[in-house]
Amino acid sequence: MAAGRAFLGAPCSSLATGARRLAFASLPPRALAPALRRRVPGRRVASVSSSPDAASAPEPYVLTTPLYYVNAPPHMGSAYTTIAADAIARFQRLLEKKVIFITGTDEHGEKIATSAEASGRNPKEHCDVISSSYKMLWADLDIEYDKFIRTTDHKHEGVVNEFYSRVLSSGDIYRADYEGLYCVNCEEYKDEKELAENNSCPVHLKPCVARKEDNYFFALSKYQHKLEELLARNPDFVRPSHRLNEVQGWIKSGLRDFSISRASVDWGIPVPNDTKQTIYVWFDALLGYISALLDDGEQASLQQAIDRGWPASLHLIGKDILRFHAVYWPAMLMSAGISVPDAVFGHGFLTKDGMKMGKSLGNTLEPKDLVERFGADAVRYFFLREVEFGNDGDYSEERFINIVNAHLANTIGNLLNRTLGLLKKNCKSTLVFDSIAAADGVPLRENVENLVDKAKHHYENLLLSSACESILEIGNLGNLYIDEQAPWSCFKKGGESAEKAAKDLVIILEIMRIIAIALSPIAPSLSLRIYAQLGFTEDQFRLLRWEDTKWGGLKAGQVMMEPKPVFARIETETTEEAQASSKAAKGGKKKSLSKGLVEA
């Protein structure tokens, strides 16, 4: 039989039929998204480990976001932190780590009571509403957390009380009067030397209020040398390095004891030995990282929570709360005789069109709106790819659309679509060679393997933008290869040329399989759609490990899905369309910017 006929006609009968087709594979990308979301929104669906040593697994990898303050609904800054944390957690799961990804809400304090009153609710009702909005946004953003802690949970209050008693027993809590300038938004007394003009808070730019209170204090100054020793012994405790320099500067300038109770705030956990005062919101909230380790409804026990996985492997935070996590928190833990976390990573701020965001400027960026317009994969990819993790980053809609279209729709989506189109036309959507055999003697394989190793290195070092770049470069190599080899022309020639063309398609599809795994921490739903197009099931996707990025996953006889675009290209609106969108919005209707789809 002439070699060309096997590719232009029906595949050989000896070829296996391949993996069964997915029922949802025929759905358009936007309609497909809900089917790919986890069964319980926000909460991760546990998968069965394929490792024979699962029973003797090492210590868990405990990763936390801040517990977000519920004075207002989630904003893009909190969404950014959580997207990054989710990407790190997904990568660690690919390494077969037992990951405990913790997020949640901080629900006590003066600012919460004030916000509740302004909204016409009592504090608990207000907290319920805002905490739920975080859970809903995390589901929309494909965030798969393991634990969601609320500081109003009963188990949390019990842990706080036990911890307070430990610190009290260490002799590190005392009572004293304090007079100073207080920022209600920071929930913190400020040193005059750090204030802006008119005694304004440098973060919130609002005047601080003079207060005098009889409070309980934590002896932070007692731990100055121990904190210096901690940073000298483990400089990676604070990352990136320029954040470490900030922390060292704070400690070097001298640490002052800080107030850990409030006499004027009713909405909080009562001080165990003085119910006329409530525990300071930060002394309360930081302990959520430990209380979260307990199961829901479980009896509160500080030691039991610690035994479940403490210390944390990584606290991921914004740089504005670095002092609380890198100075106050480790000192508090030392006082209670508890291990400090392994590392604290402080990332930068987000701006919009080069300007700081704020309601007064009318340029806020609402994450819910972004997801509704562009989808979770686009939002996740842009912020993780375009913002160098640890530094400040900027959002502009024009750049967002250009980056997402160029990288996800064109480089990745279009490469898959046109390759599957050629496979359907010439090989009845069936692989004729194993990917190992197809790539024999082809240098492209080694180049791809090197980029996979680079991506892994970047993920391990929290260089998320660089990881995205390495994965995109794999796609660039695939596009360059298919353009150079021109399999569409080789199939027309028949014979050995057609056989070579069939191998080239397998090579490209193997590249797409590898991209689907390597990109899954960043854009999980897109990665699943790619994997489904390659003839695999969702269950197979859920069991993937980083080890599966090794070349050789595609086998001869495997049947690919019908070629369909996996990512909707974003089309910018004309002036007339923008006006129509504005009118539709006023009428209560929303118009998506996603008009077209990538074409093969």
Automatic annotation (TrEMBL):
Keyword Ligase among UniProt keywords: yes
Q: Which SUPFAM superfamilies match?
A: Anticodon-binding domain of a subclass of class I aminoacyl-tRNA synthetases, Nucleotidylyl transferase
Read off the Gene3D superfamilies from this record: 2.170.220.10, HUPs (3.40.50.620), Isoleucyl-tRNA Synthetase, Domain 1 (1.10.730.10)
Cellular component, GO, one term: chloroplast stroma
Q: What is the residue range of the signal peptide feature?
A: none
Q: Which residues form a coiled coil?
A: none
Give UniProt keywords alphabetically. Answer: Aminoacyl-tRNA synthetase, ATP-binding, Ligase, Nucleotide-binding, Protein biosynthesis
**Start and end residues of each Methionyl/Leucyl tRNA synthetase domain:** 197-420
As its record notes, the protein acts as a catalyst of: tRNA(Met) + L-methionine + ATP = L-methionyl-tRNA(Met) + AMP + diphosphate
InterPro entries on file: Anticodon_Met, Met-tRNA_synth, Met-tRNA_synth_2, Methionyl/Leucyl_tRNA_Synth, MetRS_core, Rossmann-like_a/b/a_fold, tRNAsynth_Ia_anticodon-bd
Key word Ligase present: yes
Please list where the region (Disordered) is annotated: 571-600
EC numbers for this chain: 6.1.1.10
- Annotated ranges, domain Methionyl-tRNA synthetase anticodon-binding: 444-580
Record family assignment: Belongs to the class-I aminoacyl-tRNA synthetase family.
List the HAMAP family. Met_tRNA_synth_type2 (MF_01228)
Q: What is this protein called?
A: methionine--tRNA ligase
Q: Write down the species.
A: Panicum virgatum
Q: What is the lineage of its organism?
A: Eukaryota, Viridiplantae, Streptophyta, Embryophyta, Tracheophyta
